[in-house]
Specification:
531 residues, alpha+beta, SH3 type barrels, 5-stranded antiparallel sheet, 13 strands, 53% helix
């Protein structure tokens, strides 16, 4: 309910904004656009372009400024006749011309691709007695710049077309005071129709979406292999898309060309938002499915890359949506992209660290020195990688704290990845008492070698037991081997088993008071024994 109410407010805001623009900006926009492109050719009435001429005529008649409306006609009639002809032309355009104002040329030279010289065709009005082309001619008046006017050839047919138009059937049942009173150039009955129609369209969109969801949900579960019946695609984008279709249908029922243009613009805006929303949901759904497949295939190394691609795709969707909305708002995309480029350079200088971290994250994910779930050492930090984001990498330490390392630093640091090792080193030094004889020492070394060689998890090609040195209190023996195990917890169990076996061997010959395991692990996997 809250989302629907917010959507209603958004659409009502668009309506009010569009009507205000129709009263102020539309007539001025062609003038500024023409002035920017060709300053000497600017016309005070906006007649420098075909778009400005059509919009100017409609704007003037909506304001009931027939003197100004007559200035858009190429006619030799005197003032009263020109005003009446302008009024008739406006009615014909509003009731019978079904075209989009966006298709009209906004350049002083007009549409150069239609094969017409100094003439533009804005559409065709159908009539039982013969169709009529709506033409604009580029004419030269005095020493001023060329301007676009409604062609005299078209104006000759306007009275006939006007006589064929019947009043809207709905006005037969509307009281006179609702038709006579206006607000923002619209009769009151049309405002009442708008406020009644919008909630009705929202209701129809909700009902239609519910029906479509029942059809789409089984297909969605089949494609995503979801067994939970409650799970399904989000109805938000679908409802917005259906609403856009309804608004587009309403545009054909509009009584004026400007209103049809407005409802078309609202429908296009909602459709762009719906498609972008749906694209983001589709990217998320694809990422979830890919993550599940990676888990089933035991390819956790590609998880971080998939998450980064997911975020970049969603950012691209947002940027493309923003550009489309700018295009629908009649913004010059060339100038907008140029401004974005200059702004991007300025932001780049001010956000060097952020950009450095972004590219650092891309390098870490592409080179894959570490992956999500790997046990690693970064500087003085030892822990498990939990996430590789766009800005930083999060590492869970043995103390269960989370350390965030900026990707820009991570890309330049030395990383030690313990998850990629194929075996773990077993290395210890045992000190025997100085009273131990050479024969006893030889016997101990032989038994330790036999113990290491007999264990199935010890690499026999790497195992050794050697008498290392004399000290003031002991005779030191070194035991070295690689344990064929990658899991540290399993390695600790094997190490414990070997050390206990070694204690059984050297126990009978050890002297009281001598520390038999005085240096347990010279290279103890760098602090990992407490993991």
């Amino acid at each position: 309910m809250k989302k629907t109410f917010s959507s209603v407010l958004v659409v009502l805001g668009l309506i009010l904004l569009q009507r205000l623009e129709a009263q102020t900006a539309q007539a001025e926009r062609p003038q500024s656009t023409a002035a920017e492109q060709n300053p000497p050719a600017a016309d005070p009435l906006g007649r420098s372009t075909p778009h400005g001429t059509v919009v100017g005529l409609i704007e003037a008649t909506e304001r009931e400024n027939l003197d100004r409306a007559a200035e858009y006609l190429e006619s030799g009639l005197k003032s009263p006749g020109r005003q009446e002809l302008a009024q008739q032309l406006s009615v014909v355009l509003n009731r019978k011309l079904f075209t989009s104002l966006d298709r009209l040329s906004r350049t002083p030279d007009g549409d150069l691709d239609d094969g017409l010289s100094n003439r533009d065709r804005i559409g065709i009005v159908e009539s039982p007695s013969g169709d009529v082309e709506m033409l604009l001619d580029r004419v030269q008046r005095g020493q001023g710049p060329p301007i676009w006017l409604f062609s005299s050839r078209t104006l000759q047919e306007i009275p006939r077309l006007y006589d064929e138009i019947q009043p809207p059937w709905i006005e037969r049942y509307i009281p006179e005071w609702l038709r006579a009173n206006r607000w923002l150039s619209l009769p009151l009955y049309r405002w009442i129709a708008i406020f009644v129609l919008i909630p009705l369209l929202f209701g129809l969109a909700a009902l239609s979406t519910r029906g479509l969801t029942r059809v789409i949900r089984p297909l969605f579960r089949r494609l995503t292999q979801e067994q939970n019946g409650r799970k399904g695609p989000s109805v938000g984008p679908l409802r917005l898309l259906v609403l856009a279709v309804f608004f587009y249908s309403v545009s054909f029922l509009s009584l004026t060309l400007a209103t049809r243009h407005f409802w078309n613009r609202v429908a296009e805006t909602l459709m762009v938002l719906a498609l972008s929303w749906f694209a983001i949901r589709l990217v998320d759904a694809g990422a979830r499915l890919s993550l599940k497949r990676l888990e089933r295939a035991h390819r956790s190394a590609d998880t971080a890359l998939l998450r980064l691609v997911n975020r970049l795709l969603k950012a691209a969707v947002v940027i493309v949506t923003f550009l489309f909305l700018l295009y629908l708002s009649d913004v010059d995309l060339t100038a907008a992209l140029t401004g974005l480029g200059l702004g991007g350079i300025a932001i780049g200088f001010g956000a060097q660290k952020t950009i450095e971290n972004l590219f650092g994250g891309i390098m870490v994910i592409s080179d894959k020195p570490v992956n999500v779930g790997d046990l690693c050492k970064v500087g003085d930090v030892v822990g498990t990688v939990e996430d590789i984001g766009i800005r930083s990498t999060r590492i869970r330490t043995a103390d269960r704290t989370v350390v965030s390392v900026p990707n820009g630093q991570l890309a330049t640091m030395t990383l030690e990845n313990f998850a990629t090792r194929d075996r773990i080193r077993f290395q210890h030094v045992v000190g025997l008492g100085r009273q131990t004889t050479a024969d006893e020492l030889r016997s101990v070394l032989v038994q330790i070698r036999q113990l290491l060689d007999a264990h199935p998890k010890v690499d026999p090609t790497s195992s050794r037991a050697r008498f290392m040195r004399f000290t003031a209190t002991s005779l030191d023996l070194e035991m070295f081997a690689y344990v064929l195990e990658t899991d540290h917890a399993a390695f600790l169990a094997i190490q414990e088993e070997l050390l206990l076996g070694i204690m059984d061997i050297i126990g009978p010959i050890s002297a009281p008071g001598v520390d038999l395991l005085r240096a347990l692990d010279l290279a103890k996997d760098r602090g990992l024994a407490t993991r």
